[in-house]
Structure formats: C-alpha cells, structure tokens
Amino acid sequence: MSATRVKLSDVARDAGVxxxxxxxxxxxxxxxxPKTLAKVRASAQRLGYxxxxxxxxxxxxxxxxxxxxxxxxxSAIFARALQAMQARLAQSGYLLxxxxxxxxxxxxxxxxxxxxxxxxxxxxxxxxxxxxxTTALLEAAGLPVVLTWCGDGRFTAVTIDNARAGRLxxxxxxxxxxxxxxxxxxxxxxNDRQRARLAGARRALAEAGLDLPDSLVVEQALTxxxxxxxxxxxxxxxxxxxxxxxxxxxxxxxxxxEAHARGMxxxxxxxxxxxxxxxxxAHVSPGLTTVHVPTGRIGNLAAQTLxxxxxxxxxxxxxxxxxxxxxxxxxxxxxx
Amino acid sequence: MSATRVKLSDVARDAGVxxxxxxxxxxxxxxxxPKTLAKVRASAQRLGYxxxxxxxxxxxxxxxxxxxxxxxxxSAIFARALQAMQARLAQSGYLLxxxxxxxxxxxxxxxxxxxxxxxxxxxxxxxxxxxxxTTALLEAAGLPVVLTWCGDGRFTAVTIDNARAGRLxxxxxxxxxxxxxxxxxxxxxxNDRQRARLAGARRALAEAGLDLPDSLVVEQALTxxxxxxxxxxxxxxxxxxxxxxxxxxxxxxxxxxEAHARGMxxxxxxxxxxxxxxxxxAHVSPGLTTVHVPTGRIGNLAAQTLxxxxxxxxxxxxxxxxxxxxxxxxxxxxxx
DNA sequence: AGCCTTGCTGAAAGCGCTTTCATAGTAGCG
DNA sequence: CGCTACTATGAAAGCGCTTTCAGCAAGGCT
Lengths: 336, 336
Fold this sequence. Notes:
Two copies of one chain form a homodimer. The first copy, chain A, is of the alpha/beta class. Chain A contains twelve helices and twelve strands.
C-alpha cells in the first residue's frame, strides 16, 4: 500500500507557495507568473501529486464527469456511440460514467438517480420516452441533458429521423415492386426508436396504397436470434411476405440466416432490408441493404453538445442527423 | 433551473434530528431506532433529497465507483464484458467509469491517472502489458486492481488461457489434416492476448512438426476489414495456406468474406477458425468454427472480484476461465 | 511625484458529507 | 437500588480542494 497520498498542501509547502497558488496552477495556469507556475509544476511532478477529484468536485461544483444511460452496452450501436462520446469527452478532460437499464424504465430512473448523485456535469440518455419520475428528476436537477436518437422537444437532442428510416426502407421495397412487406420490430414498449421506424414504414406503405396488417409485424427482443425467430414467424404465414424490414440490422441479419436455413435464396425468394448500418451488414452474405444511421456521430455530437452546455455556450436545441439508404444485394425486384 | 439542491442538513432540520443521524440513516440504518429512521426517511423522501456523491466520497474516502479501461468500447468483446461488469456493479450500488486507450500505452497511462484522480474504488484493466509508469501509478495508489484476459502474477486477475485458445484452434486444424496453416493476428504491439494466441498456435504446430513461418502470419488492425485484408495477403502467397486462424472472430469472419469474394468455398477450399466466440459467429455462413471465450463471465467476475477487494474480502489471485473449441461448418478436413 | 491600474499571490471560508467522541437515556445485573 | 453496559443521538472536526476577498508590487498616468 502507498504512503498517505500527496495532497495539494504538500505541494504548496514543497514549492513554498500557498495552497491557493497550487490550485490555480492546476485550474487557471495563466493567472500565475511563469516562474511560480514552473516552481509549482516541478514540485507537483516530483511529489507525484494527483488532485483528488472528489474534493475538487465538492469545492468547485463540477465533477468533470458526464453520465450516459443506454439500454445496454452490449450492442454494436450503443457501444459505438459510447466509444465516440468517450473519445470526445476525454479530449476535454472529461470521463464517462455509464449505466444501462436493459429496457426497464424503473431501472432508468434508478440510473438517473445514481448518476445525479455522483454529480455528473451532464447526462446523455437514449430516446425521449421515460418514466415521468425520471423526467422530473432531470428537470429538478437542472443539469445539461442530451437526448439521443429521439428528441422530445423539451430537452436538447441529437437525433435521427427514425420514421424516415422506416420510410426509406419501405419505399425502397415498394419501389422494387414488393406488395406484401413484413416488419420485425423491437419490443415497442419503452422504445420510441422502434415505434417510429415502424410508423414510418407503415406510413410509406399506406401512401402506396398498401397495408401493414398486425399479422405482418412481429415484435422481438433486440438480438440476432430475435430476428431469426421473427423471420420464421413471418415466413410461416399462409401468404408470407416477399420482403422484410428489420427494425435493426441485427434482425435483418437474423432474417438472412433464417431464410438461408430454410433453403430460401435472398434476394431471389425474399428481400431483406435493415436499419442501422452496422459494419457487419456490409460483410454478411448477401450484403445487407440497410438504412445507415451515423451512430458514431450521434455519440460524438452528444458529447460535444454536452460539453458546450456545461460551458454555458448556446447549443442547437435539436440536431437532426441524416439517415441514408444503402442498397446492397439483399433486396431486389419482386418476382413476377 | 432548480432551486438550490436539498442537502443533508435540510433533511436533518426537517426531521428534527442532527445531520449525523441523517447520515446514518443513509449509510448505517440499523444504528438508528426504527422510529427515527422512519422520520428521517420520510423527510428525505418529501424533500427529494439526493446525497452529494462528491461530498460523500471526500468524507468517506469511497466513491462507489469502479473504473474500467479497455482498448475500445467499440468492440463486441469489450462491450459485452463491460455490460456484464456494469450490471454486477449496479447490483451493489456501484457505477462504472470507463475510458479507452485505443491501443496506446500512453493513453492508458493517462486514463489511469484520470480514473485515479476521480477516486475510483477499484480498477479493471485489460491485459498485463503496460507502460511501467502505469504500473507504478497503480502500485502507488494501492487500490484494488483486476487485470482481465491476461494476468501478470502481481495483480489480481480474471483470465483465460490465450495460448491454449490459439493451440485449440491450431490443433483442430492439424487434426483435420491441414499442414499449411496461416494466422491473422492483431497488432502484437501492446497486445499480449494476441501474442499469446499466436504463440499457442505456433507451439501446437511445432509439436506437430509443422512450421508457422513469418510469411504465414500477418498482423492487422482488429477489424473485419483487417481480417479481409489479412486473408487476401495470405491467399496471394505462392503456396497459400489451406487453413486460416483468426486471432479474433472478426478476422475469421473477414476471411469468410474475402474467400467468398474470391469465389472460394469455405470450407472446401479453405478452412477458417476464429477465437472469441462472438454471437455473430454462429450466424455467419458458413457457421464459424471458433474457440469460445466466456467474455461476459470475465466482466462479471472482474466486477465481483473488485467488489470483494473493496470490501477487503480475500479473493483468488487469479481466476482462469475455460476456453472451448466450438466446431461449426467453416472448417473441414484438408483436401487430398 | 502621487495616484490608479494591473498582475500576482495569500488568507480563510466553505463545499456537503462522514465519523470519531462524548453524552444521555435505558436496561441488565448482583 | 447502585453500577455497568449498551443503545441511540448529537457536537464538532475535518475530508482536500476552490474561490472570493484582500493586499502588495510594479508600472503607467497626469
């Protein structure tokens, strides 16, 4: 074990200055004369001084920490967004405190409470739908909050147009002549992203005079296996769809799998379109047609926005990032 | 914005008790009489009191926060491990502070410094190889540290036998009659996991009287594209290998891709084996033979171990988790 | 030359909580 | 019953830092 930790006053004594000066050497170096600064830095260096974050946070009111609450870290999507956030935050000396709620609003509330208690300087959340208690907590705390993927018009947000993503997927399929299109969506409970994607697809179909009956929509857990299962259900219908939209790429990849297992050829026997634009989607076979979502940018921008808010700079209330259809081999013109 | 935050003393006044009592109501409820406890809780509830973590950390010396430093969050492997950690920690009221170093030892040092500064109660790191400065920092701090994937005999560790993973992959291929086996490894610089896997494979080959010349080993960035590129290089050799080992599943999946793009049939023309056991690997086509690594368990156990260490309970200096060969369709007996 | 800036540093008061230490009841015991 | 031994609470001293608020030099100005 170490000797008692070196503290600011030790550095001050060593450098022959007051604690205030050492503090300034760390936080506002330009207030000091070059000579003093050098002296303090030398002492700090030599003693191996590491400021105590808790004390700094308590005294200054800022923890240099940003919180992020996602449904799960175990998802290529959120992992990428968090990596991007973390990278951006690190540049500014901030650290990321993460929590996940696994799709439970109550767990999200708990997470917000925990992060707020830890004194995060800002908070990133996914989606706009949550327990009213959570929102109340957030508002009472009055700290910078950035919503991602979906906004609610109240909190600052970095979003994508999920409905448009659904629409693009559907329109692509409609354009290819498909008339009977199915969709596998994530559980719509507490998942506004999936709801919006489904609604967008449904809307596009309706505008084309097509219907998206409940029988052609299945809700599944957000996993590859969920995609397979959903695909299986849809393909076993009396009149199965000729094309499928996956609410996330993972679903679509599951569809590819399931179709393959059934001896069906994608895209000859079934067209499949995903939404997300995972790296993996370009590499499955056949390459997955998907609506690309700039996941990394969402994370980066969320971090940037939070940082700006912490610094009391003005920010866009809502930044809408573009989604884009990427056509690959998993979709083609409907037979006949 | 909110009114000034409710603090402990407000609750104390409201409940008609001393601050000490309120503090105890939070941290050591059984020290209070049921009556007092109820009174305090009621006040806290009504006022919406949320303890200030920074103040608690400063006064108590514990931040209820565990740090984790991984190469990147944007990897199915680390994402899963972190999710498992986070879930376990949350159960005990701890939060996860994450940082990534993107393969840079210097960045890792910085991250350690940042996390130590934030007063984490414990730290999870990946691998055993790091800048001596980092190790010095860790030792000086004298806080619970758990290494994952690889241990170094000094710090507590939750590991897998990476060499064995490489060996299992190689032996499987050797057993199938392959004589010319190539390997795609991650950059070996600052990556002891990859080095061990390569060494294990090489050892197995040597024991079978086979050679793994440098020409059959390529180092690539840890991405799917890296796997493809590595595969391409190996296949373009004058006498290309008949089987490939991917240092991570992503590489192996890249190989599947690349082989497919070249019109080669896996496993007829080329056998491919990965190491990791990604979910995705069961779903690519052909299904990937891989050495499964219990990634989630690593995270869970790392969390559990850290929690035990924080509580000053004795822990295993090193827990070795099993790896296991999972044979799927991407590997078969060598032709002729 | 006297006065006012401007620039740099120090003194000291907290930030909101935990934690000895001390105290006052309360019960148990011979 | 008087004494010990708890138990439940309060008083107060920090935890290590930041941040006004002053103060003192050293110039710049008229």
